[in-house]
Amino acid sequence: xxxxxxxxxxxxxxxxxxxxxxxxxxxxxxxxxxxxxxxxxxxxxxxxxxxxxxxxxxxxxxxxxxxxxxxxxxxxxxxxxxxxxxxxxxxxxxxxxxxxxxxxxxxxxxxxxxxxxxxxxxxxxxxxxxxxxxxxxxxxxxxxxxxxxxxxxxxxxxxxxxxxxxxxxxxxxxxxxxxxxxxxxxxxxxxxxxxxxxxxxxxxxxxxxxxxxxxxxxxxxxxxxxxxxxxxxxxxxxxxxxxxxxxxxxxxxxxxxxxxxxxxxxxxxxxxxxxxxxxxxxxxxxxxxxxxxxxxxxxxxxxxxxxxxxxxxxxxxxxxxxxxxxxxxxxxxxxxxxxxxxxxxxxxxxxxxxxxxxxxxxxxxxxxxxxxxxxxxxxxxxxxxxxxxxxxxxxxxxxxxxxxxxxxxxxxx
Length: 413
Hints:
CATH class of the largest domain: Alpha Beta
Structural class: alpha+beta
Helix content: 25-40%
Number of domains: 2
Number of helices: 12
Number of strands: 20
Strand order of the largest sheet: 12-18-17-16-15-14-13
Oligomer: single chain
CATH superfamily of the largest domain: Naphthalene 1,2-dioxygenase Alpha Subunit, Chain A, domain 1
Distance between the termini: 39 Å
Radius of gyration: 23 Å
């Protein structure tokens, strides 16, 4: 992110903190609770947003070397993503061309061949059909025409994009627009996958996304967890088409006030989050990134799955390992996590950061979401309210409503 922009955002947040004010969208909205429970809407969303829209499946660090692979089946199309022997990113339908059985069931790893467990038809990481056992019995076929079904796949600035349809369009510049350059500045291609977790809960996928749409709740719901690190009730917000940037101040922002502006680093004083339409929450930090992918349950509008993956630079991973065995290294705590000197000497936030982030989402945010889901399913509560201080929720819901051909939410008053 450009230094001038970092300073501008940090100054805006400092001013909000000094004035005791939050961002003001100037409008409140009513959101109908049917949007969380309607089966017809859920089907339309699944088909449009997950079967006919580009999907971010991970970062370059998920495929660290030639012959690495990654599988996913979160959005209705079983995907086998690979790096071929030359290091090229590829994506295929994870289905044997013989009888349709999955050729790889592991989530990630490295393989020279992918062999179907049913009849052992085998494929290269480039998707080529290379072996058919007892081919003289089966009969001759043209192997060049029966490789794995290829899907559009693009690796760009550390992101791995796949389209679920073989004839789908995958234009990343058009997809991200002016946000593309800003995301590229974080150099996410240099990060290594460090771990992940899966959360499946009884709440609509949009309710799960709503979790990341405001800071109003930080000092209430998260007073003993994230509230120890973040101020809450402050927000810098900017739309980029259907995407947006969401930045809120951490208590580390106070340390920046005493430093020259040219030394200000936004990741040391804030929580920087990008929402990528329709289902991605991307948190970037100093040498790390957390990728949150939220998916609906095709069969149940009241259920969703969240995949949380964390990535770090190799230097941070090495420092974290050293910190585990060196008692002289300062330990990271909520009070000093944004102290640059501590971070440089001991960044053993590796497993801890993923655990804290994931458990806070699951045990606090999503618990509230499950309560909300029950209220919506009851049918007596016809609408919920989004306040003037919740512009990310305005943007998210009106964006998906526009994409579905629906009218924008009704304004309050």
